[in-house]
C-alpha cells in the first residue's frame, strides 16, 4: 500500500499525519507543541527547536509503515510567518509569529498617507502589520541582514529544508503584501517604495504541486524513500477547505482553532471599496483560477483556553463536559435576560474594525455571576464577533450552509449558537486532522488519484425564535458596547 504524509504547522500545535492512498484516511498521527520564543509582547516561532520536532515526527511516520512506500509529503501552515534563508544555506532560527504586532507602524503609515486602498487593488489584502512585508521592514530596521536572503513563508521553508528547492506557494504568498493577486507577479511598485529587492521573494508555485524530492541525506536519516516528493498545499484554512469538500457555489467555510476564519471561494478577487473598508482579504486559492475571500478573527479557541486557565478548570471538564451541559441550559432559555457582554479582543480585533491594540471587555457581571455564566458569555461573544465579520463579508451573498472544521465542532453550544446567530444551517464536519489531511488530499487529487472527502457531519438548524431574540441582543447590546469601547480606546491611544 502507498502512503503520504501531511504536515500542519499551526499556531499552538503542529501535526504530522500519515495517510493511506488514495483514500487519504489518517492512520497515524504525531503532534507537538509549536515551539515559541516569548520576549514580552514579542513572540517568535522557534525554528531551531521546530526542526528536531519535525525530524522525530517524520521518522515515526516512516517507522510506522516500514518498507511501504511514502509517495509524498504535503505541507500546510499559518499564513503570515516566514523564515529568511541565505544563499549559503543558513537561515534565521526564529520567525515572527503571524499575530505579532511588530510590523504595525509600517501598515498604519500607508493608511495615514492614503495609499492603503490603492495597494489593496494590487495585493487584494488591506495593509495590516501581520503581513510578511511589514515583518521584513521591521527586521531590516532592527539590524537583520536582508542581503543574499530569500523570504520563505513557513510552509515553504519546511519544503526547502526537506528538498532544497525554494518557492512560494500561491496562497501563502498572498499573505506577504508583496504579490499582485491577479497576475501572481511581484508587486514591484510596493517593493520599490520601501527599497526592497524583488529577489527576496521566489517565484510562485501552484498549491499541491511537487517541488522536488527529499534530499537524499535527509531521506536516509528520516527513513523516507529517496523518491518521496515534497509539496506545499498552502495556507492552513484553505487546506482545510479541501478536506471537507467545500462547494464554492453554496457553502462557506468557518475554520476554527486558536483563531477562526471565514472563507468563500470566487472566480475573481473582490476589490471593492466596501471590501477594503471592511479589511477583507483576497488571495490566490489552492485550486487553479480561483480566489479566496477570507478574513479571520484573532481569537476563538484562544479565548476559551484563556478562560479555562483563568478559572483553573480541568480541561476535560471545561471542553468535554461543560459544552453539553450549557447547550441544554441554552435550549431551555436559562440564560435569557441576564446575558453578559464579552468582547473577545484578547489579541486585537478582526474585521470590519481591525485594530492590533483593541482590548477585550466583559460587561454585566454581578455578585451572583457563576462560572457557567462566564462560559456562556465567552462563547456568545465569540459568535457575535463572528456575525460582525460574516455580515460585512457576505452581505446579500448568503450561502445555504456554513461548514465548520476544527475543535469548535466538539461544542454543541458553540455550533447551535453559530446557527441561531448567523441564521444559517451549520454543518460540523468531523474530519480528523482536517488541515494536514486536506494537504494530502489536494496533492493526491492533483496527481489524478481518486481522493474524495469522507466526512461525518452533524447539522444544526436555526430556531426562528432564538434567532429573533439574539438578533435584538446583538443590535441593542453587543454592537453599541463594541462601538463604545472602540471609541474609548481611540481617545486613550
Alpha-carbon Rg, integer = 22 Å
Average pLDDT number: 94
- Taking pLDDT < 50 over at least 5 consecutive residues as the criterion, the unreliable ranges are none
Helix percentage: 25-40%
Shape by Cα distribution:
globular
Sheet with the most strands: spatial strand order = 16-17-15-14-20-21-22
Structural class, by secondary structure, is alpha+beta
* Total beta strand runs: 22
- How many angstroms does the end-to-end distance come to? 60 Å
| Count of helix runs | 16
Largest sheet: 7 strands, mixed
Q: Report strand %.
A: 15-25%
Explain how this protein is built.
This protein is of the alpha+beta class and 493 residues long. It has 16 helices and 22 strands. The protein has helices at residues 47-65, 104-112, 116-123, 132-141, 154-163, 170-173, 188-194, 216-222, 236-243, 273-277, 301-311, 315-331, 371-394, 412-422, 434-446, 464-491, and strands at residues 2-9, 13-20, 26-33, 36-39, 42-46, 69-77, 82-86, 94-96, 149-153, 168-169, 204-205, 212-213, 229-235, 251-256, 260-266, 281-284, 291-297, 341-343, 361-363, 401-405, 425-430, 456-460. A 7-stranded mixed β-sheet has the order 16-17-15-14-20-21-22, with helices on both faces. Strand 2 (13-20) and strand 3 (26-33) form a beta hairpin. The protein is globular. The protein starts with a strand and ends with a helix.
SSE arrangement:
Elements: E1 2-9, E2 13-20, E3 26-33, E4 36-39, E5 42-46, H1 47-65, E6 69-77, E7 82-86, E8 94-96, H2 104-112, H3 116-123, H4 132-141, E9 149-153, H5 154-163, E10 168-169, H6 170-173, H7 188-194, E11 204-205, E12 212-213, H8 216-222, E13 229-235, H9 236-243, E14 251-256, E15 260-266, H10 273-277, E16 281-284, E17 291-297, H11 301-311, H12 315-331, E18 341-343, E19 361-363, H13 371-394, E20 401-405, H14 412-422, E21 425-430, H15 434-446, E22 456-460, H16 464-491
Parallel strand pairs: 1-6, 6-13, 10-11, 14-20, 20-21
Antiparallel strand pairs: 1-2, 2-3, 4-5, 5-8, 7-9, 12-13, 14-15, 15-17, 16-17, 18-19, 21-22
Helix pairs in contact: 9-15, 11-13, 12-14, 13-14, 14-16
Amino acid at each position: 500500500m502507498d502512503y503520504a504524509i501531511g504536515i500542519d504547522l499551526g499556531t499552538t500545535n503542529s501535526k504530522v499525519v500519515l495517510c493511506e492512498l488514495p483514500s487519504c484516511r489518517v492512520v497515524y498521527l504525531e503532534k507537538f507543541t509549536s515551539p515559541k520564543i516569548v520576549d514580552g509582547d514579542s513572540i517568535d516561532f522557534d525554528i531551531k527547536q521546530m526542526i528536531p520536532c519535525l525530524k522525530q515526527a517524520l521518522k515515526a511516520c516512516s517507522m510506522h509503515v516500514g518498507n511501504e512506500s511514502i509517495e509524498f509529503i504535503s505541507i500546510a501552515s499559518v499564513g503570515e510567518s516566514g523564515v529568511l534563508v541565505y544563499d549559503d544555506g543558513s537561515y534565521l532560527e526564529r520567525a515572527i509569529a503571524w499575530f505579532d504586532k511588530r510590523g504595525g507602524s509600517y501598515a498604519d503609515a500607508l493608511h495615514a498617507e492614503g495609499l492603503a486602498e490603492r495597494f489593496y487593488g494590487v495585493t487584494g489584502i488591506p495593509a495590516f502589520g501581520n503581513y510578511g512585508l511589514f515583518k521584513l521592514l521591521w527586521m531590516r530596521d532592527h539590524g537583520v541582514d536582508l542581503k543574499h536572503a530569500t523570504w520563505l513563508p513557513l510552509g515553504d521553508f519546511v519544503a526547502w529544508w526537506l528538498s532544497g528547492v525554494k518557492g512560494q506557494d500561491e496562497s501563502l504568498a498572498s499573505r506577504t503584501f508583496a504579490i499582485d493577486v491577479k497576475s501572481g507577479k511581484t508587486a514591484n511598485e510596493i517593493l520599490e517604495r520601501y527599497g526592497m529587492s524583488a529577489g527576496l521573494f521566489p517565484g510562485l508555485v501552484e498549491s499541491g504541486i511537487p517541488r522536488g524530492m527529499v534530499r537524499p541525506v535527509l531521506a536516509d536519516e528520516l527513513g523516507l524513500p529517496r523518491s518521496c516528493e515534497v509539496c506545499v498545499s498552502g495556507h492552513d484554512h484553505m487546506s482545510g477547505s479541501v478536506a471537507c469538500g467545500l462547494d464554492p457555489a453554496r457553502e462557506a467555510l468557518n475554520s476554527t482553532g486558536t483563531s477562526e476564519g471565514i472563507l468563500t471561494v470566487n472566480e475573481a478577487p473582490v476589490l471593492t471599496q466596501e471590501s477594503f473598508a471592511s479589511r477583507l482579504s483576497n488571495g490566490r486559492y489552492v485550486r487553479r483560477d480561483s480566489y479566496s475571500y477570507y478574513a479571520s478573527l484573532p481569537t476563538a479557541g484562544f479565548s476559551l483556553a484563556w478562560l479555562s486557565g483563568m478559572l483553573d478548570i480541568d480541561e476535560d471538564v471545561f471542553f468535554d463536559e461543560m459544552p453539553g451541559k450549557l447547550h441544554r441550559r441554552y435550549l431551555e432559555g436559562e440564560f435569557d435576560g441576564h446575558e453578559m457582554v464579552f468582547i473577545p479582543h484578547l489579541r486585537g480585533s478582526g474585521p470590519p474594525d481591525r485594530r492590533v491594540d483593541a482590548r477585550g471587555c466583559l460587561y454585566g457581571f454581578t455578585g451572583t455571576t457563576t462560572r457557567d455564566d462566564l462560559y456562556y458569555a465567552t462563547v456568545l461573544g465569540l459568535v457575535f464577533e463572528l456575525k460582525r465579520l460574516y455580515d460585512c463579508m457576505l452581505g446579500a451573498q448568503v450561502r445555504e450552509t456554513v461548514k465548520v472544521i476544527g475543535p469548535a465542532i466538539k461544542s454543541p453550544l458553540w455550533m447551535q449558537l453559530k446557527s441561531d446567530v448567523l441564521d444559517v444551517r451549520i454543518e460540523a464536519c468531523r474530519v480528523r486532522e482536517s488541515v494536514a489531511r486536506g494537504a494530502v488530499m489536494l496533492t493526491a487529487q492533483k496527481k489524478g488519484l481518486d481522493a474524495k472527502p469522507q466526512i461525518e457531519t452533524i447539522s444544526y438548524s436555526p430556531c426562528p425564535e432564538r434567532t429573533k431574540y439574539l438578533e435584538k441582543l446583538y443590535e441593542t447590546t453587543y454592537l453599541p458596547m463594541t462601538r463604545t469601547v472602540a471609541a474609548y480606546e481611540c481617545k486613550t491611544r
